[in-house]
Write a structure and sequence with these properties.
The structure is a single chain. The protein is an alpha/beta fold and 474 residues long. It has 13 helices and 22 strands. It has three domains: 3-154 and 280-351, 3-Layer(bba) Sandwich (FAD/NAD(P)-binding domain); 168-277, FAD/NAD(P)-binding domain; 361-464, FAD/NAD-linked reductase, C-terminal dimerisation domain (Enolase-like, domain 1, 2-Layer Sandwich). It has helices spanning 16-25, 47-52, 54-72, 88-113, 171-174, 191-202, 222-234, 327-341, 370-376, 391-395, 424-436, 441-446, 456-465, and strands at 3-10, 30-34, 115-119, 121-125, 129-133, 139-149, 153-155, 168-169, 183-187, 206-210, 238-240, 244-251, 254-261, 264-270, 272-275, 279-281, 314-316, 355-357, 362-367, 380-386, 402-408, 414-421. Strands 1, 2, 3, 4, 5, 6 and 17 form a seven-stranded mixed sheet that branches. A five-stranded parallel sheet has the order 8-15-9-10-11. The radius of gyration is 24 Å and the shape is globular. The chain binds flavin-adenine dinucleotide (FAD) and nicotinamide-adenine-dinucleotide (NAD). Residues 353-462 form the Pyridine nucleotide-disulphide oxidoreductase dimerisation domain.
Amino acid sequence: MSEKFDVIVIGAGPAGYVAAIRAAQLGLKTACVDAFVGKDGKQALGGTCLNVGCIPSKALLDSSKQYYNLAHNLPAHGISVENAKVDMSTFIGRKDKIVKQFTGGIGQLFKANKVTPFFGKGKLLKGNTVEITGSDGSKQTISATNVILASGSVPIELPFAKFDGKYILDNAGALDINEVPKRLGVIGAGVIGLELGSVWNRLGSQVTILEALPDFLSVADQDIAKVAKKEFEKQNLTIKLGAKLTKAEIKKNEVVLSYEDKDGAHDLTVDKLLVAVGRRAYTEGLLAADTGVQLDERGRIKVDEHNHTGVDGVWAVGDAVRGPMLAHKGSEEGVAVAEWIAGKAGHINLDTVPWVIYTEPEIAWAGKTEKELKELGIPYKVGSFPFAAIGRAVAMNEAIGQVKVIAHAETDRLLGVHMVGPGVSELIAEAVVAMEFKGSAEDLARIVHAHPTLSEAVHEAALSVDKRAIHKGN
Ligand code: FAD
Ligand code: NAD
């Protein structure tokens, strides 16, 4: 007889482990099955985000920023440091330590909340039974009234530039380079390409990013993307738009790339290549043929607005389903599903999920871009405010970028808030709260913001929607 649970979660990434903890908090007997193997060959909870995504990338971004600032920011403050060096084993080791701290922390949280972890590959069988195959090939089955699928995503591989872990790298490989490559090629000027490209660029690598689309960061508001591109280029990141890779060959410890753009065919030789052209839902070996769970045209698990698959007691959350592939989106879906299972009023609003890109300057937004509003035919008005006129940003010597607020032309309701500049990863939270409460630009404009803070840029941009910003012409 297989052990019976109220809830089994397959996948312990930020969607799955959060779902499991919330379900256990609600008194449900919960198991979580995960197959991720960490750098040390042992089971590591936390999925992509904690092991090879959000957390390690932010650790390296922060370390590389400290180093970059020594030469590029501190001199303006009258501080100079000579012969600064990066010790690569400390640089990578610090990141590994942080990863271990957080992945180990999930195990402790499971213990504290009485979630039973299982290590192995989980496969959903008909009737809400899960078969777990251990790393030694051993099999066991467990069953539950509800199963939550949270199998996450994996990087997309290009057929002519296959990952080899040495020269052609995915995100995991690019987080673990032990020596700064003299030349780094990056395919895809998306979130990973820009964040990890920035890490190695700051350490002195000559980074060239090839992006297939003609527009830079086409998912972001184009006013924001324009400022960001200009700043990245000042940092010596080379970004080639409309560039389509046709071949990547490893020759004598180098990667020779062939690509085409509007000017014709080109070659580029680099020491390492990061391929970051997006991620796809991971469902290999997850579903027995007769479960009834459907995949959509992009291979994602089909769900309704309550993350239900349509099969009795089977739910799916996180990167494996529609919506942005972001950790916080998956976690909130996990909480909502656990609450729905427990008969409570779960809540998730995909319209206000914030995006943050942790480059310098940072980029953040929530809601719709101007382009999206035009396509939807929604009338809008815009206010913006530059960090150059914000005292705190100038005092920090980081007076770059702007905040842009978009409100409905008639009702003034906030439709989108877009930012590029210092600390915007934190500032975006105010916009999300205001939008979640269906606030207006006038609401933001009438709220007292502390002086001198970066948040005054949000205040002034909201005032500027009604042409009454104080510290700029309107
Ligand atoms: P995952 O984190 O992918 O976890 C899925 C887990 O399920 C894995 O452990 C996998 O091994 C396991 N699994 C899959 N199938 C099975 C099975 N059949 N049996 C058992 N286990 C299984 N997002 C942000 O919001 N902010 C960031 O700053 C950010 N930075 C990122 C940086 C990088 C380099 C990358 C690659 C991603 C980043 N992301 C970021 C995206 C974020 O990592 C994902 O959105 C998030 O991890 C998705 O969570 P998830 O739980 O759905 O899936
Ligand atoms: P992405 O979708 O952000 O960017 C991929 C880029 O590659 C796009 O600009 C696309 O046009 C381009 N591209 C696609 N095919 C190409 C080709 N053949 N040649 C050249 N360019 C090509 O994907 P990503 O950077 O791989 O990241 C995957 C996802 O992980 C992100 O979309 C995001 O959901 C998540 N992530 C989030 C964060 C964060 O929140 N800060 C950080 C990293 C990753």
